[in-house]
Amino acid sequence: MSTTPTFEAVGLDAGSVWTRCVICRLEEQRLRFLGCGAARSQGWVKGLVGDPTAVSQSMLAALREAERDARTSVEAVVVGVGATVRGANCRGLYDLGRVRAVEQRDVNRAVERARRVVLPEDTMILQMFPQDFVVDRHPGHRDPRKMIAGQIEANVHLVMASQREHDCLVGVVNQAHLAVEETVSEALAASYAAVLPEDRREGAALLNIGAQSSELVVYYGDALQLATSLPVAGDHFTRDVARGLCISFEDAATIKHEFGCATADGTADNCLVEVPSREDRGVQRRMLNRILESRAVDLFQLAQRELVRVGMDGALMGGLFLAGGAALLEGMCEAAEDALRCRVCNALPVGIEDWPEEICNPAWTTVAGLAMYSAKLKSQHEIQRQSYGLLGKILK
C-alpha cells in the first residue's frame, strides 16, 4: 500500500534588520506550519551584503531556532532577493512557417525568443512571467494553443537582478551549510502568500517595505505587469526623524516604533513624547508624525509614478497590499489610500495551516511566500518523478 510522500518546505528571508526562517510540511497537497525562527541581521549595507560571514551567522541563528521549533533539520531553502530587483517588458516573435494550429512547442519558442535580450552588465534574469500573446497581429490572447495562425508573438515580463549580488547571496547561504533550491524576488514571494488570484485579475499591487530596500509588483488579469525597486525604505523614515528632531538614530527608531504614525491628522498639539536618552525635554508627537507623514507621501508618490508608467494608475480594483517590517508603522494604510486613491490593506499570509497568530503580520509575509514557493517546487518535482515512474512501468 503506497503512502503519500511528505516534504519539508523552507523559506529564508535575509532582511537588513531581521533574518527570518519558516519551516512547513507539504502533505497531501496541504501545507502545514512546523516552526519559525528569527535573528537580528548583521553584515548588510544599504540592502546589499557587506560582510558575508556576519550575514551567514545571522542565517544560521534563525535557521537553528526554526529547526528547534519544528523539531527537524533543514538542508535546502528558497531565498528572497530584494534591493537590486527590476523588471522589463519584452517581446518574442515566432513564425510558424505556414498557417496551422498553434502547438505548445510554438508557444515555448516564442517565449524563449522574448527571453533572448541583451542584458546590461552585471544583470541576470531571476524570473520570467508570460503576459499575453499576439496571434497574427491580434493582441490579448492568454493561451494561443489550438488557434489557427501563421505567427505568434509573446509578451513577457522579465524580473532581473544584479548577478554579483545574487551570487554573493547564494554563496552566503552555502556558507551557512545550506543548498539553495531557488531564488525569488521578495515582493513576488510576499504576493504569492498574500494576494489572491481574484485580486490579481482585477488589478492589484504589493509594496514590500523593508528597512533598507522596497520593492513593488503589479498584477492585472493574472499577468505580472511590473516588478521594480523603490529608493525609499524604512530607514529613511528613521533618519528623517533623527534629523528633524536632532536625536540619535537609535532614539529615532525607538520613538518611531512606539509613538509614530504616518498620518499627522488627529494628533494633539500638546502631546509630548519622551526621548529615552534625553531627560531635559520631550518632543511634540505631532511634529514626529508630520515628519513620518512627509516621508510616507514621498514613498507612495514614487509608487504612483510607477503605476502611471505601466498604465495602472487608478486601475487597482483589487487594491494595494503592504508587506515588510516598515509596513507595521501605524497609519501606513491610510497614507497609501490618500496618495493612491485605492483600497489598501496589510499583506497577511494565507494558505498555510496552523500559521501562528503572533506572526500573522506583514513582517512575516515574505518568508511565508518563500516557504510556499518551496512547496510548489517540491510538488512539481514529485509530479514529474511519478510520471517518469509510470512511463517506466508502461515500457517494461
Strands, count: 18
* Secondary-structure element series: EEEEEHEEHEEEHEHHEEEHHEEHEHEH
Which percent range describes the beta-strand content?
Answer: 25-35%
Whole-number count of domains: 3
How would you name the oligomeric state of the polypeptide chains in this document? single chain
Helical content class = 25-40%
Contiguous low-pLDDT stretches (5 residues minimum) are 387-396
- Order of strands side by side in the largest beta sheet? 3-2-1-6-11
CATH class of the largest domain reads Alpha Beta
CATH topology of the largest domain: Nucleotidyltransferase, domain 5
Span of the ends, CA to CA? 21 Å
Computed Rg:
23 Å
Using the 3D structure, state the CATH architecture of the largest domain.
2-Layer Sandwich
The number of helical elements comes to 10
Topology summary:
Elements: E1 6-14, E2 18-27, E3 30-40, E4 44-45, E5 48-49, H1 52-70, E6 76-81, E7 86-101, H2 104-115, E8 123-135, E9 138-141, E10 148-162, H3 163-175, E11 179-185, H4 186-194, H5 197-202, E12 204-209, E13 214-220, E14 223-230, H6 234-245, H7 249-259, E15 272-273, E16 283-284, H8 285-309, E17 319-323, H9 332-340, E18 344-346, H10 365-395
Parallel strand pairs: 1-6, 6-11, 12-17, 17-18
Antiparallel strand pairs: 1-2, 2-3, 4-5, 7-10, 8-9, 8-10, 12-13, 13-14, 15-16
